[in-house]
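Q: What would this chain look like folded?
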Amino acid sequence: MDETKIYRKCISCNCIKPRTELIKITINKATKELRISPSSNFVGRSLYICKNFSCIDTAFKKGRIYKILKIKPDETFKEKIRAVLEN
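A: My prediction, written as structure tokens:
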């Protein structure tokens, strides 16, 4: 792997890609603040997911996002992630 790039793994399809090609989702447990950003330096519990709708749907269907972030299921959260992709 190239040493100049930082690679991360998608929680849905398990593909290893450069961090810039994935969406980072982070939650700060103290403030319950969610950040959805492709390049966030926000500290907290995080996960990476591909920038396509099939990976997002699979991750929500299997409950992986809620399990990794340790939060309760919320349908508005899925819409927030989809809005980031549409922009």
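The first strand starts at residue 7 and ends at 9.
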